[in-house]
Amino acid sequence: MDEKFMLRCIQIAKNGLGTTAPNPMVGAVIVYNNQIIGEGYTSAYGGAHAEVNAIKSVKDISLLKSATLYVTLEPCSHFGKTPPCADFIVKMGIPKVVIGLKDPHEKVAGNGIKRLEESGCLVEVGISKNECEEHHKRFLTFHTKKRPYIILKWAETADNFIAPEPTLRGEKKKPYWITNSRSRQLVHKWRSEEPGIIAGTNTVMADNPQLNLRDWTGKPPTRIIIDRTLKIPSNFHVFDGKQKTIICTEVEDCSQFEDNITYKILNFKISLPQQLCSLLYEEQIQSVIIEGGCKTLDSFIESNLWDEARIFKGATTFRKGIKAPEIKGIIKEQIQISTDQLTILKP
Fold first, then answer.
1. Is the Cβ–Cβ distance between 134 and 128 less than 8 Å?
2. Which of 36, 115, 186, 262 is most buried (CB neighbours < 10 A)?
């Protein structure tokens, strides 16, 4: 029964995907006599946490003194945007708390559990541990490895090309689609779920991508654009000012910078992936999709800095062009999306 209720916590927690960061997307349920009497998940950043939302959803609060609270991650014990959840649980008299994972955040790190136990609350930790770790993979990677959770994403043709040769393109700079419209909509959904998206100079110059949300609703990711010499024209979509954009360059001359764009100076004479990871950590970007191009993707693969690869295989062929990256990993999932096949790899 404990695992059943914890899996329900994970299920409802996913409602917060893309809105809670930098807070984790936590789920909580309250159980009385093996029946769920309250549920909640973390509100958008700045709002109430899952435990508070679950408690406030209970119609008969007198039942709380005989109930069990299930939660995917250790309740917080410090003041942030909201008061400590552990204190609220104690205040409401809940006698037992079942926790999926201990929180690695330095401001919590066992203090929430300690607060509950000192109040006389019975605490169990580690229920559905593997499932909770998978669910909280972004938050855990960010706080234990001090870098974002990195998702590589690309589409390749049936003959393994990621882009056509220039003669196949028209004069207007725009994406050359390999996948079908359903796959493209899925990518826009993914963009709404991650706070950052990376693209290299060649991809931006060839495709003039918007890197925004058009086929899905939600908060668009921060664009991180690699542009060593600031060669991308200012009339390209990445300079449209419609979402936060960071340009990574080696140019220090501020007179070349565009208004309303953030510029970060990197050392292009050494490996970029680690520098980008450090930058994203400083910017509190817990996860990122790397959408290209091949050079950027290869640099992360070669540096062994990736946590997931999402690879579309389309039905079209190019015969010649830019070869798709080569990557080795464990197949986590394969999905057929009309004419496309999506393969998801883990290292």
1. no
2. 115
CA distance 155 to 314: 7
Q: Which tokens go with 285?
A: 């970007």
Token representation of residue 187:
């990518």
The residues that are catalytic are 51
How far is it, in rounded angstroms, from Cα 300 to Cα 280?
14
Between CA 101 and CA 172 the distance in angstroms is 51
- Preceding peptide of 22 cis, ω within 30°: yes
Exposed / middle / buried, residue 337 (Cβ in 10 Å: 0-12, 13-18, 19+): middle
Of 72, 53, 148, 139, nearest to 112 (Cα)? 72
Euclidean distance between CA atoms 223 and 169, whole angstroms: 25
Q: pLDDT tens-digit profile of 307-347?
A: 999 999 999 998 888 999 999 999 999 999 999 999 999 99
Distant-in-sequence, close-in-space partners of 187: CB < 8 Å, separation ≥ 6: 153
- The token duo for 336 is 């057929």
Question: What pTM was estimated for this model as a whole?
Answer: 0.91
